[in-house]
């Protein structure tokens, strides 16, 4: 999720290092659990589309339908539009993809029952429960056609190996504190999606909520080098990501400890990283 005129729930900002993470995601890597359910004629909405790498990929599966990506960041929407043009994906007609500014929390301009599929990648992790996720789910329900599919993917547990790197504390815990603005620990929003979907009125007991999981893994010297580059960029002075840590009460000393630990981890021959991804398929 990349957004620019930032709501109070989004803290990471849109520096090149942060957006680089979003640009690494594709329909095949981050929406594989949804792809078998896409029909050629489907109309798809990607909420919090960021730079459009997933959105453009989804459009290739709805070749006789249309795909819309929305985000509140005009900067990343420009990147998304450029990406689609370079990939020769049409902006109108069958198989088209368009990008529009929109905020799911403030209501969307689309009529009721517009989309066959609504997809959200790493959106709900930025919406502290319960009020904001429920508000988003209500708007998604409104624009989703009866029988349509909501698909969500949000990170849960993250681990750096070897554990002796201490990055589970220095990076994972501090990143979570930044997301929550220093609020007390709680279950990540992705892990409580089944309960939120039930509260939002989806039929959790009638076989219409399918709970699954995926993984994100970084291993090998180039991947470790990339993660170290990203961390250094996000935690440099002036980056909104770094500011989110400071706002959460993380000290300058802890930031420097984190950067040192990341550099050491990146140089370890067999070090690797894994994240559990909560994947929900929901039928309206």
Q: Write down the Rg.
A: 19 Å
Strand order in the sheet with the most strands: 3-2-1-4-5-7-6
Beta-strand content: 15-25%
Order of helices and strands: HHEHEHEEHEHHEHHHE
Helical content (DSSP H or I, runs of 4+):
25-40%
Shape: globular
Mean pLDDT: 91
- Helical element count? 10
**Main sheet summary:** 7 strands, mixed
Alpha-carbon distance between the termini?
23 Å
Nutshell version of this structure?
With 284 residues, the chain is of the alpha/beta class. 36% of the residues lie in helices and 23% in strands. The longest helix is centred in the last third of the chain and has 15 residues, at 252-266.
Question: What are the main properties of this structure?
Answer:
284 residues; disordered N terminus; 10 helices; seven-stranded mixed sheet; alpha/beta; globular; 23% strand
């Amino acid at each position: 999720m990349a957004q620019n005129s930032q709501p109070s729930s989004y803290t990471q900002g849109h520096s090149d290092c942060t957006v680089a993470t979003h640009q690494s995601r594709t329909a095949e890597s981050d929406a594989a659990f949804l792809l078998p359910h896409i029909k050629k004629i489907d109309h798809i909405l990607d909420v919090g589309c960021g730079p459009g790498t997933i959105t453009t990929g989804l459009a290739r599966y709805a070749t006789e339908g249309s795909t819309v990506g929305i985000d509140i960041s005009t900067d990343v929407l420009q990147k998304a539009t450029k990406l689609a043009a370079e990939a020769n994906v049409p902006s109108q007609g069958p198989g088209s993809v368009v990008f529009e500014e929109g905020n799911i929390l403030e209501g969307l301009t689309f009529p009721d029952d517009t989309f066959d599929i609504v997809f959200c990648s790493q959106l709900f992790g930025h919406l502290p429960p319960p009020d904001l996720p429920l508000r988003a789910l209500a708007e998604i329900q409104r624009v989703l056609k009866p029988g349509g599919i909501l698909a969500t993917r949000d990170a849960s547990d993250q681990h750096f190996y070897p554990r002796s790197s201490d990055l589970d504390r220095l990076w994972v815990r501090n990143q979570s504190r930044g997301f929550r603005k220093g609020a007390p620990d709680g279950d990540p929003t992705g892990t409580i999606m089944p309960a939120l979907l039930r509260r939002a009125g989806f039929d959790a007991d009638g076989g219409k909520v399918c709970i699954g999981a995926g993984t994100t893994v970084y291993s090998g010297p180039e991947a470790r080098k990339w993660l170290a580059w990203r961390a250094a960029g996000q935690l440099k002075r002036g980056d909104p990501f770094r500011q989110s840590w400071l706002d959460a009460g993380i000290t300058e000393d802890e930031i420097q400890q984190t950067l040192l630990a990341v550099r050491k981890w990146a140089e370890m021959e067999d070090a690797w990283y894994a994240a559990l991804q909560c994947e929900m398929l929901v039928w309206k």
